[in-house]
Every structure is written in structure tokens, then in C-alpha cells.
Design goal:
By secondary structure, the chain is of the alpha+beta class. The protein is 19% helix and 19% strand. Strands 4-5-6-9-8-7 form a six-stranded antiparallel sheet, with helices on both faces. A three-stranded antiparallel sheet has the order 2-1-3, with no helix packed on it. The relative contact order is 0.12.
Length: 281
């Protein structure tokens, strides 16, 4: 096997411990480089975390590619022994709460089947799916797509006591892109969580792929300070989004210069929905 071929996925037969602690790894899909010395701000991985020590839920922060889509950069040490002392490994932190996320999906699938199916606000092209859950401080942030809403969802961390949250109570939570209104919720079998509505109903989306891509884009945009306006998500942002999602003018009476795809609003417009009340949180 050539040196180049040995750098691609599967070259270490799934044994990530053979990757050096200081080895920089490059995504073969989008060429993003993971540098252990820098960590990963997107996934809140601290500097000093070797590729082998990344949490199980870590994916490429640019293209969302899986870990096994990464290869060692040219000239980088591949075996752990070659660089074991270069960068101290950091604690990867708590594991993704996969059981809670699965229960969240199951709860809303049951709601869809038992209560929502056939109602006029339901988009039959969509299904229930949790998207992109990752650590946010000591908590877990992701999105939930259903046939009738798309919400940001914040799950508690190990040290949080949310059992006494009052369902329906509202809370402004700060992100780099602005402040967003989350509604407290507590569902049997899931527990307490906080939800922020982005879309409801969901007729802007013709496919599940469009809905999940929008959810992923929203999660990235939360941490983009360039879309922040006036220190908060204002009514002006909402107005802009409504303009972007409005049907194009009649070409018989108005010259149309451009038409915005309603299923792919801009990041600024998308996150302008954060001030809305969460739909059926």
C-alpha cells in the first residue's frame, strides 16, 4: 500500500489510537484540517485534544463528514508512538446523550401518529428527526425537525436541575449571533428541555433534506456574530425574513430582479425567527 493510500479512511482499521496525538488530520471531502493544537471551536473541543481523543459525536465542522473521512496530512506522524509526547490529550467531556435524543424523537413520532397525522398544518413530505446535537457549554444543543415545526432544542447537562422548569415559561438565551427566546418544556419519557421555534408550519420545505440542511445551517449560524443586529434578534430581522419568504410579485405587473428560494432563507433571516414562540415544544 502506498504512503498516500495509507492516509485515507480505514487505513488504521478503525483503530484511532494509531493516530499521533499531535497529528493534523484533513477531511478528504472538504479539506478542512483538524489541528490538535487548536482544538475545534465549533464542537467546543479544547486545544490539546488529539484526533483519537475526539468525542464520538464529533464530525467535520465544515461539511459534517464523519471522522473516518479524515486522513493524515503529508509528513504528519501517523502512529501514536511518533507523537505521543507532543500534545497532551484533553478530556473529551461527557458523551452525547443519545438515549435522551432518541426518546425526544420517539415522543414526537408518537405525537405525529396519534395527534397530528392528517391535520392541515402537517407537511407529509417530512418526518421527525433530531439534527446536529453537540455540546454547548455544559449542555447539549441541537435541532428537532418534525412535519409541523423546526425548533432549536437545548438539553440539560449532567449538573443541571431542570425538573422544576415551568412548561411554557420563556427565557432569553444569549448566543454570538444574538439573543433567542426559548420556551421551557417537560415531556414524559424525555424530561425537561428548552425549545426555540424557527419554522412552523413547515410548508417552505419540499423534502426532508431541505429541512435538515436548514436545521444544520441554523446551528452553525447561531455562533456567527456577523449576523447580529442591535444586540438582539429584532422585529426588523423578522420583517426581512417575511419579505424573503413572500411570493414573488406578478411578473405581468412588476419586473422581478431576483427570487429567493423559500426553502433556503439567508442565515440572518433564518435566525430572525428565534424570537418566535416555540411551536408545540
Amino acid at each position: 500500500m502506498s504512503a498516500a493510500a495509507s492516509r485515507f479512511e480505514g487505513s488504521y482499521l478503525g483503530d484511532a489510537t494509531r493516530i499521533g496525538a499531535a497529528t493534523r488530520m484533513e477531511c478528504k471531502i472538504c479539506w478542512h484540517v483538524y489541528d490538535p493544537a487548536e482544538g475545534c471551536e465549533h464542537w467546543q473541543v479544547p486545544p490539546g485534544t488529539g484526533f483519537a481523543a475526539l468525542p464520538d459525536h464529533w464530525r467535520c465542522p465544515v461539511c459534517d463528514g464523519a471522522r473516518d473521512q479524515f486522513m493524515a496530512l503529508e509528513g504528519e506522524p501517523i502512529t501514536a508512538d511518533a507523537a505521543a509526547d507532543s500534545v497532551p490529550l484533553a478530556d473529551a467531556g461527557p458523551a452525547l446523550p443519545t438515549e435522551t435524543i432518541a426518546r425526544l424523537e420517539a415522543a414526537f413520532r408518537e405525537i405525529h401518529t396519534a395527534q397530528m397525522r392528517g391535520l392541515p398544518i402537517v407537511n407529509d413530505a417530512l418526518a421527525v428527526k433530531a439534527v446536529g446535537f453537540r455540546r454547548h457549554g455544559e449542555r447539549w444543543l441541537g435541532a428537532l425537525v418534525t412535519p409541523w415545526f423546526l425548533n432549536l432544542v437545548l438539553l440539560p447537562g449532567e449538573g443541571d436541575e431542570w425538573s422544576e422548569l415551568v412548561p411554557g415559561a420563556k427565557e432569553l438565551i444569549e448566543f454570538p449571533s444574538g439573543r433567542y427566546e426559548f420556551v421551557h418544556a417537560n415531556r414524559k419519557g424525555v424530561g425537561a428541555y428548552k425549545a426555540c421555534s424557527l419554522f412552523s408550519p413547515m410548508f417552505e420545505f419540499a423534502s426532508m433534506l431541505q429541512a435538515t440542511e436548514t436545521a444544520s445551517a441554523a446551528l452553525v449560524s447561531l455562533f456567527d456574530p456577523s449576523i447580529r443586529e442591535d444586540g438582539a434578534q429584532t422585529a426588523e430581522i423578522r420583517r426581512r425574513r417575511e419579505e424573503e419568504l413572500a411570493p414573488p410579485p406578478d411578473p405581468a405587473t412588476t419586473q422581478v430582479e431576483s427570487v429567493v428560494d423559500p426553502a433556503r432563507p439567508s442565515r440572518r433571516a433564518l435566525l430572525g425567527m428565534g424570537s418566535a414562540e416555540a411551536a408545540d415544544a
